[in-house]
Each structure stands twice: as C-alpha cells, then as structure tokens.
Amino acid sequence: MPLMPSLLCPYCYQPFPPRKTLFRCAGLLGPGGERCKPERDQALSRRFGMNEALPPVFPGGRLTAVNGRRTGARCPSCQGETTQRLCPNCHSQLPVHFGRVDSRLIALIGAKGSGKTVYMTVLLHELMHSVGRRFDAAVVGSDDHTRSEFSKRYEEMLYRQSVLPGTTRPGQAEVRRPLVFKVTLDRSGLFGTRDRHTITSFFDTAGEDLISKESVDLNVRYLRGADGIILLLDPLQMRGARAGAAPGTRLPDRDDKTDSPVNVLTRVTEVLYEATGRGPNRRIDVPVAVAFSKIDALRHAFPPGSPLLREPPDAEPVFDQADSLAVHDHVRALLHEWDGAQIDQIMRKNFSTFRYFGLSALGGGPTADNRVDPRGVHPYRVADPFLWLLSRFNALPATKG
Description:
Blueprint (H helix, E strand, L loop, with lengths): L6 E2 L6 E2 L5 E3 L14 E2 L1 H7 L4 E2 L2 E3 L3 E4 L2 E6 L6 E2 L1 E3 L15 E9 L5 H13 L1 H5 L3 E4 L2 H17 L18 E8 L8 E8 L10 H4 L3 H5 L3 E6 L5 H5 L17 H16 L11 E5 L28 H17 L3 H10 L3 E5 L25 H9 L9
Parallel strand pairs: 11-14, 11-15, 15-16, 16-17
Antiparallel strand pairs: 1-2, 3-6, 3-10, 4-5, 7-8, 8-9, 12-13, 13-14
Helix pairs in contact: 2-4, 8-10, 9-10
C-alpha cells in the first residue's frame, strides 16, 4: 500500500506529511562506543504527562534502507541505527507498518453513565477471544503502553477482580492517551491470499466532556479525524425505557452531570458539522453506529419475534447485514416507546450513514457494591457496531442486506 500524502497520528490525531516523521535513538551503544543520554521528552510530557527519561529525538535525514526500502535512521549523535518512528507533533512511537496498512480511527463516545469504559474493555476482550476466533482475527496492542494499560488496568479489574471501573475523570482530554490496536483479518478469496491489517485507535472520553458545548470542543480533533463513530447511549436515561426496566434494575443517577441522550447527540452533531466544515444542507458522511447499552434490563418486554432476543448468526466469518438491519429496524421502533423518537429524527436529518444497535457489555446488571454479577461477564452483541464499521471500511466481508 503506497504511503498516503498525509498521515493521521493515532495518538494525538494531528495530521502530518510522511517526510516529517521523526525518529528516536535506540539508546544502545553506537558503533564508536558512545551512548546517547536519556532525558525527558517535552512533547510527550505536555501531551500525555509522560515524564520518563528517553533517548533523544531527531529528524529522519540520515535514513537507512534494505533492498531499497527505508527501514530506519541513523542517530546523528551516537551514529546508532533505530527503527523507532515518531509522530512529529506528540512524539508517540508509531505502530509497526504505520502508513503502509489501513489506519482507521474509530471514535468511541458516550454520555456519563452509558457504560463506555466497560463496553470498550469487553469489546476488545471479545475481539481478542471469541470474535477473534470466529473471524480468524489477530488483535494486538500496537505499543507497550496499550498492551500494559489494557491488560493491567482494564482486563485485570473487570475480568479477574470483577470490579467495575470508576468514572473517567473529566477535563483531561489532552492528557489521556488512546489505546491503539492492530486488527489482522484473513481475507483469502477476497483480496488474494493477503491478510488485511487495520490499525484502530480508541480514546476513552469522559462522559462529562459531553455535557456542555465548551467541553465537547475538547474532543473536536478526535472527531475530526474519525473514520467511524460508535456513539454509546444509555436507554435507561430515557423516560420511557426507565419505566419499562426489569424490577430491581439499578437506574442511573439523574444529576447536573448527567444529560439526556438527545442532548448528547445534538452536541456531537454540532461538533461534527464544525469539524468537517459541512454546510447546513449537507449530511455528515462519517458512518455512525448508535449503540444502546444495558439492553439486558429491557429484553423481558420485547416481543417473541424480536431480533434482540436471539444470538447473532455466527455460522460464517462474515458480517450478517440482514440480521443487523433487523436489529436496526427494531431499535428504531423501540425509540418511540422509549420517548426517544427525536434521536431518530436527528440521525435521519443529519447523517447519511448510520445504524442502530442494542447490546449488553456485562449481560446483567452490576451488584449493589459495583461489582460484576457472580455469574461473570456474559456480553451480548458487543462486537456488532465495530464489525459493522469494519465492513463499511471493506476490512471485513459482509452479506448483502
């Protein structure tokens, strides 16, 4: 795949031309026996609060190559070779093969209490395990921070300690570091015998960052670079759905830091118009998966024929469009019962490509002390929005709808 005219950093979401890519010295002894002294990287410190001492950064002016392909650069100080490529804006180390494989930014956003952090954790866990086996997919963290953070902070807490994560702190958008993963899918018979690689970046925004217009603007750079959006909404924050929740369901708090799904969607729509520069008569063309969480609390009232009462088809490693469209139509009908018809009106009037989903990350409500139910995590349809977006990117085969 040829290099793109402009690359988008999966960490800070700033565009840059490939020729501006920086390199970091490997920190090893150079051919003359000299070693560069580590020091704090000011760009990483400002952007992400990372203050560890690292080898110096330099432009890629003295490149090394193998068989005519540039593989790294030579440090001007110690003369040692390195392959550590960096974003020129935030100095994050870029993933292996970045710029030579698809790089898709999937923006995951949601209001306070929608369960976004839990959803992200369960989604990635499922992609690495059951969904990965179904699609013969390999999902791995693209950097040491992602691998360590996801394993120790997210998976460890939810799957081994059975504790739900705390609320993401608001107002810290500039210092939260995204989790970046590489998804490799077997595309035999579709793109020859070559695997299809997609680099995805997940940014854990705080729900409070979507309460006011000013706080939403903190995420405008993130949304501007998005190839696809998963918007997670909590139906239990809607009057009609709250009234129909199963007995014993813990309903979300309704305070000054919690806003309605309609208001959250309205603000996100406004920011996307500003970010894309589209006029009032042009719909936003970024595909949006509108996913309603905690569907387990409402399934008891669904009619017998509801597609949300059955497991998604998994006989073939393809995205099933017919099943997805059936869910979409059913959720659209439910919106009227939940007093959420305005959500559908906003989506139809402002977005050219969108789809509704219903899912449950845990499979049941948490205990009174904010722990996972003793029966464990039993997710339901958590991968559907992500798989739909991959099918939109032609990174995943799909049936005809």
